[in-house]
């Protein structure tokens, strides 16, 4: 039997990047997957690529009505919601004095408020089932300092994870956060970036950056019944950076 056999999984920010890979891994383990994203063109193309057990829904993760629409469409299509992966997120490479309030609040709404809205939306459905797993993608910058706004929201996701886990645990709903470090993506291969990454790798205890699959494997684990006694916890994938 596959690890996510017949589980219904919602993944935000699923049109591309890590969200798409989470979806691929979940489908390979027997899940039915709803990917949501603000980018409708890429989302539709990804859902078509993923096959008949994938559904795309256009979704502004900072909008409460959009969240209600996602839940309704998923239940109508697949009958239930077993897993929510709050994956959508953005950042700006700006310092404290350079970032505008509008940009700051955009990061807060997409990275932080979306997690609150998603958790609030699926909680009643999972309570009825007396089962569920909510996986919040934070960052190693939810454990240690980093860029303003981004770090703030990733610490907030960690706190919301713990608060939600305590409240929802009587209903057998688990809530955990995942904290990736530096992930090997095409961005790291860009000229001027690759050299900096090579130097940074020397400071990582495991002496390498993470492969994208290593994050998705953790997501699959937390979505599965193998993690049935884990809740309110941080799962760190950073090669040991935050252990220093």
UniProtKB/TrEMBL annotation:
Alphabetized InterPro entries for the sequence: NAD(P)-bd_dom_sf (IPR036291), SDR_fam (IPR002347)
Any matching Pfam family: adh_short_C2
Entry's EC annotation: 1.1.1.-
Any GO molecular function: oxidoreductase activity
Domain of life: Bacteria
PANTHER family in alphabetical order: DEHYDROGENASES, SHORT CHAIN, ESTRADIOL 17-BETA-DEHYDROGENASE 8-RELATED
Sequence similarity: Belongs to the short-chain dehydrogenases/reductases (SDR) family.
Stated name of the protein: SDR family NAD(P)-dependent oxidoreductase
Species assigned in the record: Salinicoccus siamensis
